[in-house]
Amino acid sequence: MSFSSEIKKELAERLPESAGSQIPHCQIAELAAILALAGHFRQEKDGSYSILIRTENAFVARKFFTLSKNVYNIKNEVRIRKKKSGLVYLVSVEQGEVTDRMLTDTGILQGEEGEKRIGTSLAEVPVEVIRRKCCKRAYLRGAFLAAGSMTNPEHSYHFEIAVRDEAEARRLREIIRTFGIDARMTNRKNHTIVYVKEGDQIADFLRVMEAPGALMAFMNIRIVKEVRNSVNRQVNFEMANINKTADAASRQLAAIRLLQEEGRFKTLPPALKVIAELRMEYPEATLAELGRMLDPPIGKSGVNHRLNKLTAMVDMEE
């Protein structure tokens, strides 16, 4: 199961805060988002409306089924169709006045009696539906269930909800930003994408949607990745230092051998001659280790100064 599916499974099993209350406002807010992003509507001959939720995700169908049953006592008809790309879940609601009441409560059915119309855009969802902070959380849960996805955080950090147009995207981004999350927008094919790419903000989004299991899994993956990256950086740093030390030692040995071939080694000052002999005897030793072998011992900078003098003698001749 993908990371997105794990999140949706958890969200599908969670009932909003207002479940069981006299006015189930959070459940209505979550239904509003699912209807706006996954709903298809048709007006029947008697003037009432029917609803069809079409989704390739079983958790979306399950959540819509549960919410509509809990709030409106609607008996949904669920059908499953096979396609080349996988299964498609169809949840249909055709219950006249009850269906119309659901659409009116969620703000999908708008206008006065006799002049009502279907407004399926997120941009048209009435403020009353998401006035409370808990309802905003529920609304974002519904939006992610219906049209959201998240990449496996093992690979990269990317959390998004795909909507139809920029008006919907701006409304959704505005709701997300009320929680201090800096969501961005971009266009992809026929959709506008509202997305978050920063790890801390994705964690905040999971908290907002109240998905503690997904949040814990995400944080654990982040910790492992950060430790792994830290170790890799340290190993790379150490390897770079080792290579740098080896290159320097190689240049120093080449200079010493050239001084020997040219007969100049015997005329070196005692301090340079001693450090040159130590370098030849211990070609892999660090500057600190060479310094401790001297009597009296000297620091790395002193050793480096003497070895640089030796290489400079050869460089000047060249």
The proportion of strand residues reads 15-25%
How many beta-strand runs? 10
Total of helices: 11
Radius of gyration: 34 Å
Order of strands, main sheet, comes to 1-2-4-3
Overall tally of domains: 2
Task: State the secondary-structure class.
Answer: alpha+beta
CATH overall fold name of the largest domain: Endonuclease I-creI
Mean pLDDT: 85
| Percent helix range | 40-55%
Q: What's the CATH architecture of the largest domain?
A: Roll
Low-confidence stretches: none
Task: Spell out the CATH superfamily of the largest domain.
Answer: Homing endonucleases
> How many angstroms separate the termini?
67 Å
Shape: rod-shaped
Q: What profile does the largest beta sheet have?
A: 4 strands, antiparallel
Structure description:
With about 325 residues, the protein is of the alpha+beta class. It folds into two domains: about 5-210, Homing endonucleases (Endonuclease I-creI), CATH 3.10.28; about 230-315, no CATH class. It contains eleven helices and ten strands. The strands form three sheets. It has a four-stranded antiparallel β-sheet with strand order 1-2-4-3. Strands 7-8-10-9 form a four-stranded antiparallel β-sheet. A hairpin with a 2-residue loop joins strand 9 (about 185-190) and strand 10 (about 190-195). Helix 1 (about 5-10) packs parallel to helix 3, helix 2 runs parallel beside helix 5 (about 135-145) and helix 8 crosses helix 11. The longest helix is centred in the C-terminal third of the chain and has 50 residues, at about 210-260. The radius of gyration is 34 Å and the shape is rod-shaped. The two termini are about 65 Å apart.
